[in-house]
Design a protein that fits this description.
heterohexamer; A: alpha+beta; four-stranded antiparallel sheet; two-stranded antiparallel ribbon; 2 helices; elongated; B: mainly alpha; 79% helix; binds adenosine monophosphate; binds sodium ion
Chain lengths: 103, 325, 325, 325, 103, 103
């Protein structure tokens, strides 16, 4: 089956920053992404968990974004402008996709 | 004094306080007891809707008090002024950075709706009436403190922390909208409306509050376990002193406005309580460098239990004594 | 006319409608108020179980009406025929592709159980009785519309859209199974069974309905905000005209069958309402090329609020007038 | 015998059993009906809190029975001994590996709190009283069986299976903590406390139980569908024989202790029932090589329905006959 | 620690299509996968979110499948047959696994 | 935008083992991770789903851990010690990260 090279960017970011991130991505011309829940975790600022939380301040999500290689710089610039001052982690991996015409 | 003690005793042995204590104990003992996030959020929506609605019905029933508008204005002023006092107090008592101090200050200017709910149930248990619009005052006090705390930081030469998106998020955060919205629904539909949904929002209210406080105890206990180290003795003391300072200001406000005994007590409770729903979110956006462990542990792990157990009986007793109610 | 106006006024100012309006307003103002998916699903399960159970108890109590079987057959026929009318109407009024038109048509042949629930609460508020088995008619009307709409497409020369898996999914979708199942449980256990769980399924019902409609308002408002562009004026008009056409057919059916005033009103409501739970899922499987924004916005954002606010009072008033009820 | 039959008939046609049956049927027919995990967990928290609280209130009301301590000890002993019997029985009846047999045995020594809840509602429906502290006995019986089963394995020369973490997890698992905690809250606050939250924990209880059993039916049905092959006829038979053996031991214990008719019935129910909340988690940690399909299908798919439908009426009838209650 | 080469396939697909996808995978001899929830996202057909939804038609999930390299074609054929007419996105990445005997 | 090489380790493991895994990771000096929910899946021990479950024994989670390449062995040893006797699957992929100073 024919596949095409692409980049898979995963951004773990605070939930309160999610709409700011996706807005910045849209402005950078990136229009496809998915948001996955994160239950808890640990990092330099300690451990956290979603259990029983009602505060809107807690918790992170993972935004996954598959892009054509030539779009990666615009995407990273957009992501960086939002995560810069905030906690969060951005990983970029190589991948192949089916149906590249969809991107 | 006697009244305080007896109120405190009744209060401490009520199902809601014991449920909170159970949650704290379970978390400290590292039990895996936990309430799913969706269920906790569902209960908080229920409580906000119910308390807002009942406030509105009470206004519909008793008519608008001349002091409603004044009380709202007073609430906004209190919420804006309290962070300045908290910030100053933290400079004296604590060893927090300016950013951390401002973030904590924002929490103490704003309010904790569960503390308010717990207080109304102590009041109704003691047969003390209060103005139905106090729930609108509570809503009015949620946001100004955030703006006030951010002003403290930007005034200090820091870059701009506020934009239109954030302002909208703060003013239209879910709990304000639900509280104000259900207040108006209660007001419009009045006692007839209440009759239709009484079996949902009145009868089971105390029970839901128990489970909600169980959850808050679990979350507070987990926070204390993992973050107890972050609070210096000075900051810890702030978590008990600030509510008393706030309550005093609330008392003065209530007496000045001439509201009922219950109204005075609720002004004290609102001023004494610290936010843990809306403000943390705003702080993560505007002051990401401030350490959330500090403000969350202080608000939920220290001040909330203090108000719940000792604070509320004290405020109610003082309000009763000074209004002769 | 007077009756319609007064019913509409009472209806518009009821807690459930105001809760829906609050949800729409909050979403349009981009508040972050939201109800967790699990809680929304939990409430919908509660409502389906309660309404099914009560319908079954009412059948156990009043005995089987001779028209039960006829009503079920009539419901199936209505559900199968309405999509054909909707499809034809859309060819005239709208500018939708055949696929989009068929997908929309499927929604209008099927039913919205929340609209049904809201109507029963208006009926019982006005003291109008209806047949308990109408809830079974509602269940019977869920699925045939889907088959009918798919036939419209395959008849047009399109490839096969239906397989056994899909057929099973449609016939045994969760809401049909829960509605029919709880109907039988209510029927079997009767008033004795009801007595045991009345405090759960009867007393808090209206209150849960308020929160559920708040959620539907939020979802509808968000949909309107993001998809308002997809609907042309003609399609928008269809969202109001089609319910009236459906209601007329429902009226004729109810009068022909000779059911009670409430029964006639409910036949009108079922025919007028558009699905937004079961049918969208079937459409995503069978007609993936159809644009979900169109059918969801039309069903949840246009027709549902129309029925909730104006439709139901009209249908009840007309049914009362024509049956002399 | 007549009493058993009539009790069984009433029981089988009660809303809770029919709800369970609906869930099983829906799952076997592969309907997509499902209850979100968060809602199911929320309901189980509600049921545990309510049953614990009511037990505590009843102790506060009737005073501590001299047999309370003895009953707790008896519960611990029963829970520790039953796995040995179950293990031996499985060697005879089944063809399970030692590990699988030990894992199954742990489940049958421990208890199913929903079966307990269902039994108390049959008892109260028949007007038979029982000791309020039986809920504490239930909590006491949760954990010992696990230790007993692990001893069976380690004794067999297997490496160490238990560490301090696991021990704490077992002793402080969420359902034990909630049950015991709410029991004490009920005990401390007594009938006054109950009065405050009665509309939450008493009135809607049966209704919540219906939806919870609907969910358990769905889960059991799905399990039966996907794992029906793993159980040999011998193991299947064990799922019905073991509850009867357990009930007999429970009966002897209850009679020896001289508890009330209801107390004897509940001792039978506890001994007859098999865990499906706490024990599976412990088994995954300590005996990961044991096949979960076997113990979950047996406990939830065979023994639970057996107890729910036939077991409870039998136990209640036998207890009544032998205590003359 | 010894690791083995494998492929990690992530398929974001509508929830209503999930059982059809996993059935097709089973038929193609792929027996191991995990399903992760997706909270919301955006693509050519617009933005969506799971919040407050009761309709069964909305929402996507992510199916993750780790396979031996020689199974990848069978898997992609199976996945493609299901996503072909539907929205959804298939990415394939290289990875190493512990305990390859488990696949 | 400057990026740095890293490893992305994804461990799908039973929920009851989660705290044991993260404890072992902490002991091995790995302090950053995120936990993602898993809704269901299938493997050699059959299919499972989280729907309607109240038992604490059922269900898996995915622990995601981004580490500097030189930490990977310590992490894998820690992970292996926990998953060894348990069901679960460990994949390691190459990736790039922004802000490597954060790890
Ligand atoms: N190395 C990592 N791998 C995966 N998730 C991480 C990592 N570091 C941080 N996180 C996630 O990001 C959150 C904040 O990280 P930190 O800013 O380091 O406190 C943590 O609680 C984790 O959920
Ligand atoms: N490039 C992408 N990266 C990640 N997720 C995507 C991407 N494109 C689409 N999606 C997901 O797939 C859904 C449907 O996409 P589409 O068919 O483009 O509307 C979106 O709402 C996202 O959840
Ligand atoms: N190849 C795989 N790819 C993704 N997830 C898997 C794979 N194999 C197993 N799993 C997950 O791990 C669980 C247990 O696997 P197993 O031990 O093979 O029964 C499964 O139910 C899946 O959730
Ligand atoms: Na305050
Ligand atoms: Na219709
Ligand atoms: Na037992």
């Amino acid at each position: 089956m024919e596949t095409h090279k692409a980049k898979r960017v995963a951004i773990i970011i605070e939930q309160v920053m999610q709409s700011r991130l996706t807005d910045a991505m849209s402005k950078a011309g990136v229009t496809g992404w998915s948001v996955l829940p994160v239950l808890g975790g640990s990092g330099r600022s300690g451990a956290w968990s979603r259990e029983g939380q009602v505060t809107r301040g807690a918790g992170m999500v993972q935004v996954i974004c598959v892009v054509r290689p030539d779009r990666i710089d615009a995407l990273l610039d957009a992501a960086f402008s939002v995560v810069e001052r905030h906690i969060g982690i951005v990983t970029i991996g190589d991948c192949e996709v089916l149906r590249a015409e969809r991107f | 004094m006697d009244q305080i003690l007896s109120l405190a005793a009744t209060n401490l042995l009520s199902p809601i306080i014991l449920s909170f204590a159970l949650g704290v104990a379970a978390a400290l003992a590292r039990s895996d007891l936990n309430i799913p996030e969706a269920v906790a959020k569902g209960m908080s929506i229920y409580l906000l809707f119910a308390i807002g609605f009942k406030g509105g019905v009470s206004v519909a029933d008793h008519g608008i008090d001349a002091t409603l508008a004044l009380s709202l204005v007073a609430g906004v002023v209190l919420s804006a002024v309290l962070p300045l006092i908290a910030f100053a107090l933290l400079q004296v008592m604590g060893s927090l950075s300016r950013l951390d101090a401002a973030a904590v200050a924002a929490h103490y200017g704003s309010i904790s709706i569960v503390t308010f709910v717990a207080a109304t149930s102590v009041l109704s248990g003691s047969g003390i009436v209060s103005e139905g619009y106090m729930v609108a005052v509570a809503a009015a006090m949620e946001a100004p403190a955030i703006l006030s705390a951010l002003w403290l930081i930007t005034r200090g030469g820091d870059s701009r922390r506020m934009d239109n998106d954030l302002l909208r998020e703060i003013m239209l955060n879910g709990s304000i909208v639900l509280l104000v919205g259900s207040f108006f629904i209660g007001w419009i539909t009045g006692v007839d409306g209440l009759a239709k949904i009484e079996a949902f929002i009145v009868s089971p209210f105390q029970g839901v509050l128990c489970l909600f406080l169980l959850d808050m105890g679990l979350v507070a206990g987990r926070g204390l376990r993992s973050s107890s180290g972050v609070l210096t003795p000075g900051v810890l003391a702030f978590g008990v002193v600030m509510p008393l300072v706030g309550a005093t200001l609330g008392l003065a406000t209530g007496l000045l406005l001439g509201v009922s005994t219950g109204g005075v007590a609720l002004f004290m409770v609102l001023s004494a309580s610290a936010s843990y729903i809306a403000v943390p979110a705003a702080m993560r956006v505007a002051l990401p460098e401030a350490n959330p462990s500090i403000y969350l542990t202080l608000s939920l792990g220290v001040t909330f239990p203090f108000n719940l157990t000792l604070g509320i009986p004290i405020y109610v007793a003082v309000a009763s004594a000074l209004t002769g109610g």
